[in-house]
Amino acid sequence: MRLLLALAAMQLGLQLQAGPVRISLLTDSYALQDTLDLLKESGCPAESVAAFRLAVERYNSTPGPDLRKFPRARGGFHGFESLTQLLTALPHKLYETRHA
User: In 3-state terms, what secondary structure has residue 3?
Assistant: First the structure.
């Protein structure tokens, strides 16, 4: 849930100081499976979950954003003390990341 809130806030350009934020770009199989399970448990249709998985796999088959300023991932998730810290670590907005 925090991941979805963080992504929504980034899209809106909001700077929240709420508290810890975890984010995954779903490049780790554990994080991807955890997200797929969450979607299934939340009532998403199996076809939609399968389509999401294919979209993530296709997206991740090309170079992603520069994560050098990100803390080391644990269990596929990068932890930040705040959304502001996460936004500072991004080289640019996620939607501006070039993909083939």
Answer: helix
